[in-house]
Automatic annotation (TrEMBL):
SUPFAM superfamilies: Homeodomain-like, Tetracyclin repressor-like, C-terminal domain. GO terms for molecular function: DNA-binding transcription factor activity; transcription cis-regulatory region binding. It comes from Nonomuraea pusilla. This is Transcriptional regulator, TetR family. Residues 6-66 form the HTH tetR-type domain. The keyword DNA-binding applies. Pfam families: TetR_N. Residues 29-48 bind DNA. Gene3D superfamilies: Tetracycline Repressor, domain 2. It comes from the Bacteria. PROSITE patterns: HTH_TETR_1 (PS01081), HTH_TETR_2 (PS50977).
């Protein structure tokens, strides 16, 4: 592939990511992607294949970015302050989703049965990440830092549901106006709420950091 071809493929992937995140797989056509990229459908097919192949490439790229961020966060998890480390992990995940809103948007479309004929992505991408976080929290559970009665996996999913919802939909203020995740005051308030919710859900000792 020539540099020009590589550049066009990257541009198509970027446009497709934006459209799939906004409209979902079912709501996006190859023509829409081609038009947004300033290309014809034949050129899109030449560089990336059909709509299904392009969607799989978009989801793989999203997964790679999320996994890299999570691996970095988990690498910082061990230490002498397990409670603080757990809260830093939540901060890292929230920051990733706020900085990369297309990632939670892509997955939330799938929660609503988007791309229903492509069924392997959750097993291939999501479950291994949840399993890795569960395993990383096992020492805190075994040592009693996390309440042994807690369902850690569901606590992790609670964070995912909340963070994805906030990153995608924001929150309404007192006047009924939508505040996005880019609103600093709304983000600060959500972050504090998320930390308190997780602290209580896991039964962590001491005050919320």
């Amino acid at each position: 592939m020539t540099p020009a071809d590589s550049g066009q493929a990257a541009a198509i992937l970027k446009v497709a990511t934006t459209l799939f995140a906004a409209l979902g797989y079912d709501g996006t056509s190859t023509r829409q992607i081609a038009d947004a990229a300033g290309l014809n459908i034949a050129t899109v097919n030449y560089h990336v294949g059909g709509k299904r192949e392009l969607y799989l490439a978009v989801m793989e790229a999203a997964h790679r970015a999320e996994k890299a961020a999570l691996d970095d966060a988990l690498g910082r998890l061990p230490g002498g302050d397990p409670v603080g480390a757990i809260h830093r992990l939540v901060d890292d995940y929230l920051d990733f989703c706020v900085d990369n809103p297309e990632v939670p948007a892509l997955w939330m479309h799938r929660w609503l049965s988007d791309a229903g004929d492509i069924t392997e992505l959750e097993r291939q991408y999501v479950q291994p990440l949840v399993t890795s976080v569960t395993a990383a929290l096992a020492p805190a559970l075994g040592s009693g830092v996390i309440d042994p009665e807690v369902d850690v996996e569901y606590a992790i999913w609670t964070v995912i549901w909340c963070v994805h919802g906030f990153a995608k939909g924001g929150v309404l203020d007192g006047d009924g106006r939508r505040r996005s995740a880019g609103d600093r005051a709304a983000l600060r308030r959500f972050r504090a709420h998320l930390h308190r919710t997780l602290h209580l859900a896991l039964g962590l000792p001491g005050p919320t950091p």
